[in-house]
TrEMBL record:
<feature type="domain" description="Helix-turn-helix">
    <location>
        <begin position="40"/>
        <end position="89"/>
    </location>
</feature>
<protein>
    <recommendedName>
        <fullName>Helix-turn-helix domain-containing protein</fullName>
    </recommendedName>
</protein>
<dbReference type="InterPro" id="IPR009061">
    <property type="entry name" value="DNA-bd_dom_put_sf"/>
</dbReference>
<dbReference type="Pfam" id="PF12728">
    <property type="entry name" value="HTH_17"/>
</dbReference>
<dbReference type="InterPro" id="IPR041657">
    <property type="entry name" value="HTH_17"/>
</dbReference>
Amino acid sequence: MEIIGMEANAYEKSIRELNQFLDRIDRLLESTSPKAIGEWIDNQEACLILNVSLRTLQNLRDTGQIAYTQLERKVYYKREDIQKYIDKHCVKR
């Protein structure tokens, strides 16, 4: 094991910088909380909510009836967009 000596001022400065870095990480993690991420659903969950097939969901996207976001090959929907579609197409008796 090797022991490295440091001046007290340099050590304290390093600790302060490390704490500032950790504070920034905490703020970033708070901004990407599960609540924010949980607002997005994938094809499978959208199909279950709407009770439709993958092909029907594709048609809804193609015709612009449901908004979506595509990251590479994965498609995501905002829960609120799915709910808007349901509300718009709900038959009231």
